[in-house]
What we know:
Elements lengths: L5 H33 L10 H20 L3 E5 L2 E9 L2 E8 L7 E4 L8 E2 L2
Antiparallel strand pairs: 1-2, 2-3, 3-4, 4-5
Amino acid sequence: MALFDVAGARAELHRLRPVLDEFVTVRADAAELAASVGAGGAATALGGLPELKAAHARLDELMTEISRSGAELKGLAPLLVDFPSERAGVPVLLCWLEGDPELAWYHRFDLGFAGRRPLP
């Protein structure tokens, strides 16, 4: 597992932002399509079952691209991305949550999201 320093994680998050933004859009489309298809198969302006399957395939591709970067996708709604790191020799995850303007949080591996703290 590759470790990120704060600057490296911020740079990688910046590189991933178009991927993350597309993920949020496709996730919303998939939710709308699923609701429509599940309500009797009626198509929406977005389409129907074929478009739902295409949206799911695209989400899989985007998740693969995120994981290939070394980042860890921890949540889909809201989108939660962690970057493995260390602080003072302690394993931590640098943590970005959908809606955060930048990478500004971390938490210890063993504490998870509940232990989230702002980066100094």
